[in-house]
Design a protein that fits this description.
Blueprint (H helix, E strand, L loop, with lengths): L3 E6 L2 H9 L5 E7 L2 E8 L3 E8 L5 E4 L9 E6 H8 L10 E6 L2 E6 L23 E6 L5 E7 L2 E7 L17 E8 H14 L2 E7 L4 E8 L2 E8 L5 E6 L3 E6 H5 L2 H6 L2 E7 L4 E9 L4 E9 L7
Helix pairs in contact: 1-2
InterPro entries: DNA_clamp_sf (IPR046938), Rad1_Rec1_Rad17 (IPR003021)
Family: Belongs to the rad1 family.
Subcellular location: Nucleus
């Protein structure tokens, strides 16, 4: 019996959530009775999480580990997963094809038609509508089996579990927050894009009196400053208990832009150590649910 069997109809948002954190090849996959979490880390300074809550699935059957504990935790090749879920696949040749490399194997098979399926970007084979379905099965050896079906055409993928070092966990406890702002995601994204384009460091400032959030950058090509007053329409809620000013690497902030482009709302918050949390709330059209993607960034420590 599989440790997990989950089924979803309309796979576009699963693809988008996985792609939103795809800035590294490998991810840690955590499977629990509450859902699936993909975690990606970079250089001990940046973490990203894509949460696939069980409510996003039409069926979610979970069997706890026989060795005790409440979760299965293993590494997966995120690049292969995103490629498999991508709507940009094409009927390429007959028979069966496979991808080999390291600790992964993806076997793609055609069914009910002329020829098989090969993974390749360029043309759409699987529409983003709700007519396709995905089955996820987790075996006890922590191999992840995926079955994607569209109009009688079936694609299968086996992702072998990878043993990975434990990632550090950046805890951004609610009780230690200096500020938290919930706002329209597209406005936050536009402000970050402008700051990223100017300099390799961006400054984020929050103040209590007057209450505002400021994103700025200054470089050889010029300077940019975006100021969000607590009472403007694009800000849904604003709370701040202390003046906070920290700098963050632009290439770390850039990793969050994909998720921000998908989101309706975003939360930006920081604790007293300058740990920055960006959480995006993404509406899943075919389930009526909201999914979450989160990024946590350490500030740049400046030595004087």
């Amino acid at each position: 019996m599989a440790c997990l069997e989950a089924k979803i109809t309309g796979t576009q948002h699963i693809y988008m959530l996985a792609k939103a954190v795809h800035f590294k090849e490998l991810a840690i996959c955590t499977v629990t009775s509450d859902g699936i979490k993909l975690s990606v880390e970079d250089s001990g300074c940046l973490q990203a999480f894509a949460y696939l809550q069980r409510e996003l699935f039409h069926q979610y059957t979970f069997k706890p580990p026989s060795h005790g504990g409440e979760a299965y935790i293993f590494g997966v090749n995120l690049s292969v997963l995103v490629l498999f879920l991508s709507p940009l696949n094409i009927v390429e040749h007959g028979g069966r094809s496979s991808m080999e490399g390291g600790s992964r194997r993806s076997t793609l098979g055609g069914g009910g038609g002329s020829g098989g399926i090969g993974l390749r970007t360029g043309h759409a084979l699987l529409p983003s509508g709700p007519s396709n379905s995905l089955i996820i099965r987790l075996q006890e050896n922590e191999d992840l089996n995926l079955i994607l079906e569209e109009n009688g055409v079936v694609m299968t993928c086996q992702l072998q579990g990878i043993e990975m070092d434990e990632q550090p966990y950046f805890d951004i406890n609610q009780s230690s927050l200096c500020y938290k702002v919930i706002m329209k995601a597209n406005w936050l994204r536009d402000a970050l894009i402008q700051a990223i384009d100017v300099c390799d460091l961006a400054t984020i400032t929050a103040s209590t009196e007057p209450a505002f959030l400021n994103i700025s950058a200054e470089g050889i090509t010029g300077s940019i400053e975006a100021n969000f007053n607590a009472h403007v329409d694009v800000v849904e809620s604003f709370s701040s208990v202390a003046y906070t000013r920290c700098r963050y690497r632009s290439n770390h902030l850039k990793t969050a832009l994909e998720a921000l482009s998908l989101a309706d709302k975003a939360s930006i918050r920081s604790n007293e150590d300058g740990l920055l949390g960006l959480q995006m709330m993404i509406s899943c059209e075919y389930t009526g649910r909201t999914a979450y993607v989160e990024f946590r960034l350490l500030p740049v420590v400046e030595h004087h």
